[in-house]
Amino acid sequence: MNISEKFIFPAKEVSSIDSLAINDENLSGFILMKRAAEFSFDSTLKKYPNTKSFLVFCGIGNNAGDGYLFASHAIKKGLSASVVYLASPKNLKGDALKAFVELKTLGAKVIPWTKDYDFDADIIVDAIFGIGLNRIVEGDYLECIKAINEIKKTVIALDIPSGLCANTGQQKEVAIKAEITFTFVGKKIGMYLESGPDCCGQVCFSNLLIQEKNFQTAKPSVEIVNDALRNKILRKRSKTSHKGNYGHVLIVGGNNGMGGAARIAAEAAIRSGAGLVSVITRPENVNLITRLRPEIMCHAADHKLRNLKELIEKVDVIAIGPGLGIDDWAHQLYAEIMTSEQPLIMDADALNILSLDPIQRGNWILTPHPGEAAKLISKSTTQIQSDRLTSLEEIINQYQATVILKGNNTLVGNINRIPYMINAGNPGMASAGMGDLLTGLTAGLMAQYSNHDYCQIAALAAFIHAKAGDQAALNGQRGLIATDLLCELRALLNP
Q1: Nearest alpha carbon to residue 78 among 36, 31, 41
Q2: Measured between alpha carbons, how far is 40 from 148 in angstroms, rounded to an integer?
Q3: 460 close to 230: Cβ distance less than 8 angstroms
Q4: pLDDT (tens digit, 9 = 90+) per residue, 203-253?
Q5: Residue 353: helix, strand or coil by DSSP?
Q6: What is residue 430's DSSP assignment?
């Protein structure tokens, strides 16, 4: 996978790549604009082959130029293309002006926006604002975008949905809701954060044939996890191996009424390929867990925590949190586990307890959802979601940890490296037990591959988890439950 496919960039870096390509490859901005329009138009017809008419909305900058050239392609193809402008073409400059002149030579219909405009076309094309938008959307622009969002037509966006911040994914008051976004040169980080996924729909990318060398000096926001990481880590097992080669995982949790969480985590750990999996839980959960999954070793823990220290000391990885609770029993177990020097995976209520008395520790992975993340750094959930990359960095620095910040396009990072992004998963995974499964999977992979970088292990676990969710959702997202993913793990873990 080349650099442009592998990484996602902030807006300024995409602009820099564009400028480098123009200077280094003896290109013109107009050539790149033509490539963008051609890619968008051809891809649209492949996706919607029965399209007969387009309605293109244009602003004032280079994004408008993309729109004018898109309309030119449609007319040359013998299709109907009308253009509505929100800024007078008299104010166009540079490449955008060239694009407008080319369109006018084809006799295209170009008219100003009015509030009573009739959206009579098969496909609406958004070319109003590009990645340089730095102000609130208002006036005619606001009214136009709202009107586009209200009609029941297929909407495509060129480069980025108008009104969406290319860096944060926040809407500048309002943003286009597209079914497909055709984006160019580099993928923009805002398309994957906050409102980005809902606004962009399906993202189709072209680097516009820019040479790889012009991407090498750019500073990406995140690296997208793909099968290359899976193939790097998940090597074939030796024929002479035994269970002792694949680590011993300990799951700690399952308070009153929450034994299922510990069970899901434990089964995910053993399904990951861990050699041995043990559970410390409430006495009343022991029979249930061992009956449902006899391969798991279960140990009862009452308030006296007898005979547990020896077990804790002999395992390779400890995952604490699934169904742990926050009562005295939970706090006692937490305190006991925190004396261990073994690698830790922290989830759920273990994170809530940690937030009460933050510490730093190098050999651990924290797996918060946005609500837990908010407690860890004393912010609101809204603040976490509005700037997930900064929130990730703050948690990493405060706890000196590898962190899996769960959510749409899960982020994974640690000190001094570009974070990973998991561009997989689906809304059906927003259900109870999914986090427990990820915790067990992470612990199981850590036990097997302890010689690997923690961040890579965490990213691999989150990637496998998301892909399993996508496989399990092929029959529908609604009603998807955590245990549906378990049967998908083996195929994904044996590439």
Answers
A1: 41
A2: 19
A3: yes
A4: 999 999 999 999 999 999 999 999 999 999 998 899 999 999 999 999 999
A5: helix
A6: -
